[in-house]
Amino acid sequence: MRFTYLIFLEDHEIFTLVDDLEASEGNDVNFYSWLGLEPTATEEDINRAYRKLSLAVHPDKNPDAKSKEKFARLGRIKTILRNPEERKRYDFFLKNGVPKWRGTGYYYSRYRPGLGTVLIGLLVLISFLHYIILWINYFQEKNRIRHYIKESREIAWGKRMKKQQTKKRVFVNDLSFMVEGDHVFFLADDGGEYVLDEETVVRPKITDVIVFVLPGWFYNNIKKQFSVKKTNSLVNSEYEKEGFSSDDDRNEVVDNLRNKTRRRRGGNKRQNSKLKS
């Protein structure tokens, strides 16, 4: 099996030459006919035909833009026809036809994608998988809420699930819930009560995938870093103008700058509200 695989890899060059020759000279042209030979030609005939055709397609004597490709192709064809084993393989494909499917390795080597195409393909694949994961998490979260609602009601109302209007606190998986009529509330450690409703689970959108989220994340972080640098620059300028006797004085300036920023933002909001009114 290993031997067959190695031979198949060697056939890739033959397949490539067949495709290129037919694309350049026509579908009815093969290695022999291009050289003006018969399949029974001897090695001497091949050498003679090669020398004759090489003069016609040589880049130095032919202004054709594709002359270099033709000359290189001619050299490879001559090498195959002069090699008994490779010529035998070519004669086999010439008689039986070149296979339509030549393996993924052949097509990858012939139509190898560029770096940009690979990166775009990976980005699309990652985004697609991320989108699927978002939907899986969405349904899992809805099922989790349904489970807690069902378990809480069973504990509060009994197995017959007879609804009661009174409040009853129950525990499910060490989590605290309050059942009140049709509603089930999650009791958080901070004392807050949050109603359990599967409809509150946010449906994933295509804009939630990583290809859209990452640029926004980078933008916000860059904006945050710029804001911090701007604040530090203002503090340093105040430091140079006033001079501080202690760290407390410096902290006071920082607080004042922050308050000014808040007032400006608040002033903008008030101004916007006046414009709207």
TrEMBL record:
**Family matches, as CDD domains:** DnaJ
* Pfam family, any one: DnaJ
InterPro entries named in the record: DnaJ_domain, DnaJ_domain_protein, J_dom_sf
Question: What membrane topology was assigned to this protein in its record?
Answer: Single-pass membrane protein
User: Is Protein transport one of the keywords?
Assistant: no
According to the entry, every stretch annotated as the J domain falls at 30-94
Q: Which UniProt keywords apply?
A: Membrane, Signal, Transmembrane, Transmembrane helix
Record-annotated membrane-spanning stretches: 115-136
Q: Where is there biased composition of kind Basic residues?
A: 259-277
Question: Where is the segment annotated Disordered?
Answer: 240-277
| Range of residues in the leader sequence | none
Q: Which GO terms describe its cellular component?
A: endomembrane system
Where, per UniProt, does this protein localize?
Endomembrane system
Q: Where is the composition biased (Basic and acidic residues)?
A: 240-258
Q: What is this protein called?
A: DnaJ domain-containing protein
